[in-house]
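Hello forum,

I keep getting stuck at the same step: I have a sequence, I want structure tokens, and every attempt I make locally crashes halfway through. Rather than fight my setup again tonight, could one of you with a working pipeline run this one for me? It's a single chain of 135 residues.
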Amino acid sequence: MNRDTGFLTDKQLKILELRAQGYKQREIAELLGTSRENVAILEKRARENVEKARRTILAFEKLSPVRVALEEGEDLFQAPEKILRMADRHGIKVVHNKTSLIGMLRRHGGGRIQGNRIISRIEVSLLRSGRIVVE
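Reply #2:
Ran it on my machine without issues. Output:
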């Protein structure tokens, strides 16, 4: 593991970068002074490491999500403040602003919101990544 590139070696990262720019494995091999087979192996391992990292992050996000209950009768425009206060209490940096939170609640709250009032309980989960899930 390299400190600067996480689970990828410098060479793996370079290969992924060149592939993203449209280079073929044979061209990359020539640029790096190695065989196409070596490039193929390094690329495969790099992609496996990226997938492992993605799964690790997903598992971390799901660890003990913080739940916020928005109760019947609450004002929809007060909900983002309630969500953000709870996130602050748990050291979670939410990736949404108040306006986008209201939009998410309207989209995913369905018939549980009427006008600007919550008419039926809405559960909101705060993931460690800062993402919000409206249930």
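The CA atoms of residues 53 and 59 lie 10 Å apart. If your local run keeps crashing, start a new thread with the error log.
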